[in-house]
């Protein structure tokens, strides 16, 4: 399963940016998709997650500023980021978890896939 992320760039503090990610390849279904980020010298942390049922989870630091959405039919997930701050500067990674194809129409093994990362830089 391949994930292709796009939309990163350089913005000024207070501005908005939208990240997009599309999953492709051969798989049965996706359970959830998410965005993580990793700032220089820090660990990779969850930013937002959305399940295929539409349940969302956000890191406390981005609540009320970021919004995650999905298009289940197109296997895409977007992250709308508003009121960006310098501390949002990081490489943002798309993540997907689901099931590979099994026998017939049944789900097979689990998969966890990461995108290549897209850099978001917020200048103060």
Report on the architecture of this protein.
It is a single chain. With 124 residues, the protein is mainly beta. The model has no long low-confidence stretch (mean pLDDT 96). Strands 2, 4, 5, 6, 9, 10 and 11 form a 7-stranded mixed β-sheet that branches. A 4-stranded antiparallel β-sheet has the order 1-3-8-7, with no helix packed on it. A hairpin with a 6-residue loop joins strand 4 and strand 5. It is elongated. The N and C termini lie far apart (37 Å). It contains no helices and 11 strands.
Oligomer: single chain
Helix/strand class: mainly beta
Low-pLDDT regions: none
Radius of gyration: 15 Å
If helices are DSSP runs of H or I spanning 4 or more residues, what is the number of helices? 0
Measured as a percent range, the helix fraction is under 10%
Mean pLDDT: 96
**Which of globular, elongated, flat, extended, rod-shaped describes the shape?**
elongated
Which sequence of SSEs, written as H and E, runs from N to C? EEEEEEEEEEE
Quick structural overview:
The protein is mainly beta.
Annotation keywords:
about 120 residues, mainly beta, seven-stranded mixed sheet, four-stranded antiparallel sheet, elongated
């Amino acid at each position: 399963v391949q994930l292709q992320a796009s939309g990163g760039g350089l913005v000024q503090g207070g501005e908005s940016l939208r990240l997009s990610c599309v999953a492709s390849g051969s798989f049965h279904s996706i359970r959830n998709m998410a965005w993580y980020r990793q700032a220089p010298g820090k660990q990779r942390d969850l930013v937002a997650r959305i399940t295929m049922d539409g349940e969302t989870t956000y890191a406390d630091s981005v609540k009320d500023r970021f919004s995650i959405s999905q298009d289940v039919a197109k296997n895409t997930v977007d992250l709308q980021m508003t009121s960006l701050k310098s501390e949002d500067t990081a490489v943002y990674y798309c993540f997907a978890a689901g099931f590979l194809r099994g026998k017939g129409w049944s789900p097979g093994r689990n998969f966890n896939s990461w995108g290549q990362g897209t850099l978001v830089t917020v200048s103060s």
